[in-house]
Amino acid sequence: MHATRPRATAAGTTAHRWPDLPQIAYGGDYTPEQWPREVWADDIARMHDAGVNLVSIGIFAWGLLEIREGDFDFGWLDEVIEMLHAAGIRVDLGTPTASPPAWFFANHPDARAVTRDGVALGFGARGMVSHSAPAYREASVRIATELAKRYGNHPAVVLWHVHNEYGVPVGEDYSPHAVREWRRWLENRYGSIEALNAAWGTAFWGQHYEQWEHIGAPAAAPSVVNPAQRLDFARFTDDQLLSCFIAERDAIRAHSDRPITTNFMANQHGGVDLWKWAAEVDVVSDDHYLWAADTEAEIGLAIAADLTRSVGGGDPWLLMEHSTSAVNWQPRNIAKRPGEMARNSLSHLGRGADGILFFQWRASRSGAEKFHSAMVPHAGASSRVFREVVDLGAKLGRLAEVRGSRVHADVAILWDFESFWAQDLEWRPSVDLSHDERIRAYYERLWRDGITVDFALPGHDLSGYRLVIAPAQYLLRAADAENLNAYVAGGGVLVSSFFTGVVDEHDAVHAGGFGAPLEPSLGLRVDEHLPLREDEVAGIAFDGETYAADIWQEDLAISGADVRAVYTAGPAAGAPAVTRNVSGDGVGWYVSTRPDAAGLRAIMASVYRDAGLEPAGLPAGVESVVRHGDDADYRVVINHSDETVSLGMSGVDLLTQTTLEGTLVLGGGEVAVVRTSRPQ
């Protein structure tokens, strides 16, 4: 039987270091450069009222710090940092390299990023630079060095914030600088042109190469570009962005010993491989914004929080940005309901965050984000939003003892950025294939059942998990397949959804066919994919009930698995749809279609029995997750519904200082953080 407490999934990460803060970090991005000096004192007074103890500054201020190339003016930043320091507010100091100034592009027009269609991007936004341009590398290291020399040991500066949201809005760059570095990257990766030809399968469509100089970036072409080439270009882009971060980080480290981070975007941006990035930062931090079109956006929030914690190996992490209310960049920017900001914040905290920050402190009057909410909105300090900001600061002040506690999970869902990059390329069997949708479906089932989830790579040590789910592992290396097979043989339970184990790391179909590497665990292979037509709904018969299923079926070649469900209609009518296979001491399940919510619930109920798991039996809309400390456990309970609920629970609600004697009554939209002391 597997241990109930897993090892950290992000094996090999550096030892993360938390900034020197006496409380849970609370605050947000502060842009004093957008305001006259007379506003600064009012800002700091309001921060004191709200319980703010950490602000991020300087992130987009390059043009006001290096006013001409090599000509620096730090006077205003000196003043702001001293004012914050005098007020007892710590600083997360940003390097402003996400937005080079106008003089940079005037002096270095070749450093502009180029799109896949060959368009050089102009000035006036952010993120428009080529990360491969030598001039950008030199300039970004220069500004980071000057900032670190000046503020590296300042007592107010407790954290460094490099760049901003790497890869957003521009990740891939097709400029001449990128092409030059791309060829160098390929030569280092493959060593010989023969090895590259073999990996890319260039015999197809006559794409054979004889010289490195003949290889271009996979720019727009008359038809679909070699998918192996495009997958490698995504890896190259990730490495280029990471090397930019490392260059700035190391420049700072030469003059400062304070922790260094950069803000991830977890499940909202798949352009960088956060498993790799987490190993290079001292503090894992994340930006997360609700998707307004999602009527249960709290589930997407939980996915982002669990993923952020997982890539950091379970260590406490920092929510660097989220919003007090509406954002400004979605088709319909829905304002948060009263209390929703606190629920969002405490859900992040419950899933491992030791800091809650927003974008931004004061709403901007000008620019592209003037309709984005803020801690101090345009309506000012008399607004409902600011009152909730003050109330949240008070709540977090009561939760200091939660810091450093950790979340434990018995279930892991596989999350592999490289597999996603490959699956998202053109000419897949159906436009309905979506790794995001499949992960959400399985995660949502676990969320509703009150079962806490880690995310992991298929090559991680999975031995501490009772259950591992592979909702969308399209790309699967042979060694990773062996790891999954060994996990099952050793007593684990694996659930694999359709379109899994299809290709290797070069996007080449596995020898033996679809799913062949997992045959030892699953007891089957896939003879043929059978995607359904748009709006076609078939069905499966499982345990005496019939459930709807759509988008996909498969022709399965059974080599040992037991058939648990069959198709009732569609191209595979009467054939196996869901299987269960005993392998060694464990079990492998395969779900070859997309069942509706009721069908997935029934299937997972059987899976839970194999894994020794039980749903928590929570009322609809209630979220519950536990952080474990040295001497106590802290259960964060959030009622996302409008109805009052009662739950069996004892302990002390730290938010109200109420002692619970067996029952927690939680009104609609309310939150409790219940401490339970463990016997010594």
Summarize this entry quickly:
This protein is of the alpha/beta class.
List the helices and strands and how they pair.
Layout: E1 25-30, H1 37-50, E2 54-57, H2 62-65, E3 66-68, E4 71-72, H3 75-86, E5 90-95, H4 102-107, H5 134-151, E6 157-162, H6 176-190, H7 193-200, H8 227-253, E7 260-261, E8 263-264, H9 274-278, E9 285-287, H10 297-311, E10 317-321, H11 340-350, E11 353-358, H12 384-397, E12 411-414, H13 417-423, H14 435-448, E13 453-456, E14 467-470, H15 478-489, E15 493-497, H16 519-522, E16 524-531, E17 537-542, E18 545-550, E19 552-558, E20 562-567, E21 576-583, E22 586-591, E23 594-595, H17 597-611, E24 622-628, E25 632-639, E26 645-653, E27 658-666, E28 671-677
Parallel strand pairs: 1-2, 1-11, 2-5, 5-6, 6-7, 8-9, 9-10, 10-11, 12-13, 12-14, 14-15, 15-22
Antiparallel strand pairs: 3-4, 16-19, 17-18, 17-20, 18-23, 20-21, 21-22, 24-25, 25-28, 26-27, 26-28
Helix pairs in contact: 5-8, 10-14
Can you give the mean pLDDT?
A: 96
Q: How many extended strands?
A: 28
CATH superfamily heading of the largest domain: Glycosidases
Proportion in β-strands = 15-25%
Q: What is the domain tally?
A: 3
The number of distinct helices, counting runs of at least 4 residues, comes to: 17
Tell me what you see in this structure.
This protein is α/β, with parallel strands linked by helices and 680 residues long. The protein folds into 3 domains: 25-172 and 245-401, Glycosidases (TIM Barrel, Alpha-Beta Barrel); 411-611, Rossmann fold (3-Layer(aba) Sandwich); 622-677, Sandwich (Immunoglobulin-like). Helices cover 30% and strands 22% of the residues. It is built from 17 helices and 28 strands. The strands form 5 sheets. Strands 13-12-14-15-22-21-20-17-18-23 form a 10-stranded mixed β-sheet, sandwiched between helices. Strands 7-6-5-2-1-11-10-9-8 form a 9-stranded parallel β-sheet. A hairpin with an 8-residue loop joins strand 20 and strand 21. Helix 5 runs parallel beside helix 8 (227-253) and helix 10 (297-311) packs across helix 14. It is globular. The two termini are 26 Å apart.
